[in-house]
Q: What sequence folds into this?
């Protein structure tokens, strides 16, 4: 197996673990395992993505501040999304948001969707 | 994936060399080095408009932030309403925000430059791993050879601080000289990065303590990181970095000079922050003397959103010429109303007094807004133009006049009958006038 294949396998495993941890069933059965005290999904992928976004916010975002058309801004959205929905779903949500954040979009208020059925996330 | 960009950049270097070649000599190090510099400058010029836009929207965001916070506190529970309010706010300021995607669109450009500058060297594909010239990044083997083997005191664009003996020998380069030049370039690079970082810190103003620490780390850390990386990369990349750093430094100077940072005023708020206390709230709109009260003028002072932070701070420049376009039946400031009453004396003194007190930043924003086409959706009577802006700028003398006017009750809100003449300074509340002296002209 080549390096790229290994990386893909590891990433897939992390993604699967992340999806399991963020799933509703695990959240209900083992809430302490799935989520930490502040309600963020545990797991390496979510942690990694959140750390990346946080690093961006603390360093680069200052240089590029004031570009985002949305409230909350893309990085804040990404952070909330990853904490709420885990690395895979939250990451996809964040990517989708980044794609929407361009001059053609309307902008405005666009919070992370809340999963009301589960009620796992309270602001 | 980025091959077209690589080819474009590489061909641009060759193209620029056609210009520099006759000047410095076809095989001169300088003609290739200047080609590299010119390419970098061209790329930076290409994305310069993006930078200007970004700085502008950054300033707008800074002005909007207090309002956004307020809206979130007010309507945080109500998604629909919040969306509505945000749209309203963005419409008010115009929407200069480019969005986050344009930032990501620049990244391939820098990757392409970096890629091309690191790949202008021979490859170890000869017999027994010997170095040979090969076509790379869209250039023929011959062209790559020309670029990489152009030397000045044994320094070639393809050599780096860490390049091994094989490469140096193959190129006929002098390792010591390369090391010296690399160190000099790295030091210059670190210095320019440091200064740019400091300028950015100065421009964007104060931050919370956590961010301040990160900034400090960044201020000293990023030059060091760049320097460490700098030892790995060839001279061409170092020249590229130094050029971009110098360019961004110039950009920061330009920004600081043209648009000074917005600093909180005496009351600790940014200019344009909405007043919070009851005394500072905008006074109810007062119709111009001799003008019909605008439809729905009653109670507008409360339901109306306060004037736009950037737009309304300059009533005399921005509002007055626009009022006729608004067409809500009120007489524009400084003109005669249709019914014959002169407005000149009746105009409140506030705007005139206020003008010098305005900060440079808001004035600039206002003039910018004035250049924009009118927005007929905003209801604006000239009197509002006079009364409102007194509130957002809480530090001006005008607030002293606005507050008593609100306290006085119904009197100021009543429209003055048509044809009534008003003496100079008539818009001032009587109480205040009494305190200052009997005559409107002042004490003698």
A:
């Amino acid at each position: 197996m080549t390096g790229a294949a290994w990386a893909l396998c590891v990433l897939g495993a992390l993604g699967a673990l992340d999806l399991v941890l963020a799933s509703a069933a695990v959240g209900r059965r083992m809430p302490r395992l799935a989520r930490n005290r502040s309600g963020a999904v545990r797991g390496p992928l979510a942690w990694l993505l959140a750390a990346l976004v946080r690093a961006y916010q603390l360093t680069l975002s200052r240089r590029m501040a004031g570009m985002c058309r949305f409230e909350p801004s893309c990085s804040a959205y990404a952070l909330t999304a990853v904490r709420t929905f885990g690395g895979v779903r939250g990451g996809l949500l964040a990517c989708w948001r980044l794609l929407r954040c361009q001059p053609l979009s309307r902008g405005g208020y666009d919070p992370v969707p809340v999963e009301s059925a589960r009620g796992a996330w309270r602001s | 994936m980025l091959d077209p960009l690589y080819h474009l950049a590489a061909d641009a270097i060759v193209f620029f060399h056609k210009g520099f070649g006759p000047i410095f000599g076809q095989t001169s190090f300088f003609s290739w080095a200047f080609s590299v510099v010119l390419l970098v400058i061209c790329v930076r010029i290409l994305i310069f408009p993006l930078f200007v836009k970004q700085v502008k929207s950054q300033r707008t965001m800074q002005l909007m932030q207090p309002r956004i916070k307020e809206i979130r506190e007010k309507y945080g529970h109500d998604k629909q309403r919040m969306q509505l309010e945000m749209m309203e706010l963005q419409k008010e300021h115009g929407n200069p925000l480019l969005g986050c995607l344009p930032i990501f669109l620049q990244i391939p450009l820098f990757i392409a430059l970096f890629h091309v500058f690191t790949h202008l060297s021979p490859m170890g594909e000869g017999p027994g791993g010997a170095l040979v010239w090969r076509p790379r990044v869209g250039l023929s083997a011959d062209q790559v050879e020309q670029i990489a083997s152009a030397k000045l005191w044994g320094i070639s664009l393809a050599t780096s601080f860490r390049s091994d003996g094989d490469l140096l020998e193959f190129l006929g380069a002098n390792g010591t000289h390369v090391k010296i030049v690399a160190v000099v370039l790295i030091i210059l690079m670190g210095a320019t990065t440091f200064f740019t970082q400091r300028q950015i810190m100065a421009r964007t103003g104060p931050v919370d303590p956590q961010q301040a620490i990160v900034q400090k780390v960044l201020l000293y850390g990023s030059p060091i990181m760049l320097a460490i990386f700098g030892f790995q990369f060839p001279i061409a990349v170092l020249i590229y970095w130094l050029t971009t750093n110098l360019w961004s430094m110039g950009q920061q100077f330009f920004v600081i000079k043209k648009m000074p940072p917005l600093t909180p005023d005496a009351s600790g708020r940014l200019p344009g922050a909405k007043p919070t206390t009851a005394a500072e709230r905008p006074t109810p709109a007062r119709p111009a003397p001799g003008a019909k009260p605008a439809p729905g003028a009653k109670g507008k002072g409360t339901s109306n959103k306060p004037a736009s932070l950037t737009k309304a701070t300059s009533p005399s420049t921005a509002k007055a010429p626009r009022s006729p376009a608004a067409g809500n039946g009120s007489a524009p400031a400084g003109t005669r109303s249709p019914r014959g009453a002169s407005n000149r004396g009746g105009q409140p003194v506030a705007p005139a007094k206020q003008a010098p007190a305005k900060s440079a930043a808001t004035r600039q924003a206002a003039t910018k807004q004035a250049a924009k086409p009118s927005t007929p959706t905003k209801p604006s009577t000239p009197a509002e133009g006079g009364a409102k802006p007194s509130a957002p700028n809480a530090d001006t003398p005008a607030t002293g006049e606005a507050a008593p006017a609100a306290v006085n009750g119904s009197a100021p809100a009543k429209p003055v009958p048509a044809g009534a003449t008003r003496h100079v300074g008539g818009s001032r509340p009587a109480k205040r006038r009494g305190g200052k002296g009997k005559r409107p002209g002042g004490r003698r």
Remarks:
- The interface with chain A takes residues 54-55, 57-62, 68, 72, 79, 82-83, 85-87, 90, 95, 97-104, 200, 204, 207, 210-211, 214-215, 218 of chain B (CB under 8 Å).
- The two ends of chain B are 82 Å apart (CA to CA).
